[in-house]
Structure formats: structure tokens, C-alpha cells
Amino acid sequence: MRLHQAGDRVVISGLGLWTPDHVVTNTELVQALNAYADKHNDMHQAAIESGHVKAVMKSDPDFIEKASGIKQRHVYIKEGILDVDHMRPLIPERGDEELSHQAEIALHAARSAMTSANKKAEDIDAVIVSCAYTQRAYPAIAIEVQDALGIDGFGFDMLVACSAATFALHRAWEMVKSGSARAVLVINPELVSPQVNYCDRDSHFIFGDVATAVIIERAETADSEHSFEILGTQAKTLYSNNIRSNFGYMSRAYGGDPFAADKLFHQEGRSVFKEVCPMAAEHLSQHLALHDLTPADVRRWWLHQANINMNQLISKKLLGRLPDADEAPIVLDRYANTASAGSVIALSLYHQDLKPGDIGVLCSFGAGYSIGSLLLKKQ
């Protein structure tokens, strides 16, 4: 194990964002769902009338936008999602010797972040892939990416649902701070569409695919155009079943349908809204207070992008008013909920105008419940 000089000041020096080419609009999703509902309900009419089968409920685009703020989403593969005979992305399986789909999108974001930070493979000691789902248990996607980039060091995967990005950045900060790594590449390849139940009115519109990446290093080695000192990190978890996905290796042993609705993403949306919003607002207030700061001192909020109504409520609790788009930029209207990557997308797209000394907060929250935040200062 190589030991390096510990860093008194640790910074985010590079950001990478990869956006899939394919877009699915709310109207397209609703047309597919409603056509599927007609087919399913006609086929099972007798069973539905007797109460043995549930009818599939229809939706409309206005409901989706009002409930979530989402207008569209990007997806890795669009084929199959809008086909009433499939209602899932048809992603071709790759052989063991081929680059995995998730590693492929991770590499796009990773290379962009390395360019942004002016870093080569030999400058990086660790790779963390952290996201809501990894496409396999092992070998780690992070090690596959490490190999593809030619990084001589170590890598590992993390799963912390929608807080995966901030929790991984915490680990990267600790590594650089302690001197166990000179620079760490954190990647969030959120390939979520395979876990979406496109037959469920309440959740079919929520997620999109994307990949983000961040470089963490000591301030004295950073030479990028834009960098942010990490003033502090804070995390909180509280067990809840209100956001859940049960798919896993145990599905084979259970003997039922490994792709049943409960094995895909599902949530109790109202409970999540009611419980997470005050939890997130309190978490952020306490984090700022640890550094003798108040919400009024924050120039920009890069918040988790799950639901526009959640973001507005949290912001109002913090500021006593609704923030404008400059203070708390929103990207979920065009990206939808991208699991852990949403706040990093916002950071990637809305950081270049900040001035030295400006304070920003990066925060994500989700299943667990889990909340992670970083307090940042523009260099």
C-alpha cells in the first residue's frame, strides 16, 4: 500500500457528465402505459371484475408534470420501453470478455472528469463506482473501469441508493485527507431504466439514465479551471421500507417471479415526501451550523433531483421562501430522477459562474432513508 502526503485542503477539481442520446417524453410514456392498460384490462376483464386481478390504471402527461416536475428523461436504450409487448428496455446481453454496459457509460463520464481536472491515469490512485444498482455482484464495475482507464491502484463499488454519489464523495475525501490516495475518481453510472416498472402509473415516469463523475484531490495538486474546497461532509441514515427494490440473488431461491412488481423499484410516495423533507432540511441546517454558517450564507444549492415539490418544500424550510433557479437549479425536468446522480448533474451544469469564496451545498437523499451532504467553497 502506498502512503501519500495527507491533504489539509481537499478539493473537487473535475466534473464529468454523460447524457444518453435517447429521450422518452411524458406523452410517449403515457401512450404506452395506456395502451398496455387497455390490453391487460381487456385480457383479464373477468378476473378484474371478480377481484382476483388488479386493473392497470391509466395516466396522463399533465398528472406526471404536476406531481413531479418531470417533462422527459434520457434512457440508455429506448427500444422496448414503449412496446406494449415488452414494457422494458431491450438491452442486448454482452459476453464476459466484452465491456459491460455500465462500465461503458461510466467511462464516458470518467474521461470527461479527468479532462476537466487535467488528470491522467497515472495521477489517480482509486476508483469508486457508486450508484443505486450495479449490473452484477462481481467483479466490481469499478475495477473494470480502473482496468479500462489504465489506473494502477484500487477500485470498489458502493450501493447507497439515491445517496450513493455523496456517500462515495465522503469516502474519497477521507482517502485524500488521510493520504491513502493522491486523487480519487468517483463515478455514478446510473443505469436505472431496467429496474423501472413501466406498467405502474405511480412510478413509470420517475427515473432516467445518466452517468456522472467527480475527481477529488489535494488543493496543492489541483490545476483545473474550476475547483471547490470540501469544507466538510455530513451523513445520516434511518431505516425505512418506504422506498424499496427486492431484486437480488435470493430471487432464484424464492421460486416466484424474479421480476414481479415488488422486485422492481416501488415506494410509498406520500410517506417519503412527509418524512424525508423535514429530515433533509434539519440535516442541512445542522451541517451548516457546524461551520458557523446559515442557509443565507449559501450561494448555491445543488440538491437531489427527485421531485420538484420536495425540493421546493426543503428549500422553503431552509430559506423561509422559495429559491429562484439561480440559487437552486433544477435539472429533473429534462433528466428526471437519476438516482444518486441528480445533484452532481446540477453541480456539473451550474458551477462555472460562481466566484472565489462562494459557498455551495451538494446534497442527496433517498432510500434507507439516507442523506449525504458536502459543504463546498469555490476556489
From TrEMBL:
Which protein are we looking at?
Beta-ketoacyl-ACP synthase III
Q: A Gene Ontology MF term for this entry?
A: 3-oxoacyl-[acyl-carrier-protein] synthase activity
**NCBIfam families given for it?**
PRK07515.1
Which SUPFAM superfamilies does this one have?
A: Thiolase-like (SSF53901)
Domain (Beta-ketoacyl-[acyl-carrier-protein] synthase III N-terminal) ranges: 156-225
The GO biological-process annotations, alphabetized, read as: fatty acid biosynthetic process; secondary metabolite biosynthetic process
Gene3D superfamilies named among the record's database cross-references: 3.40.47.10
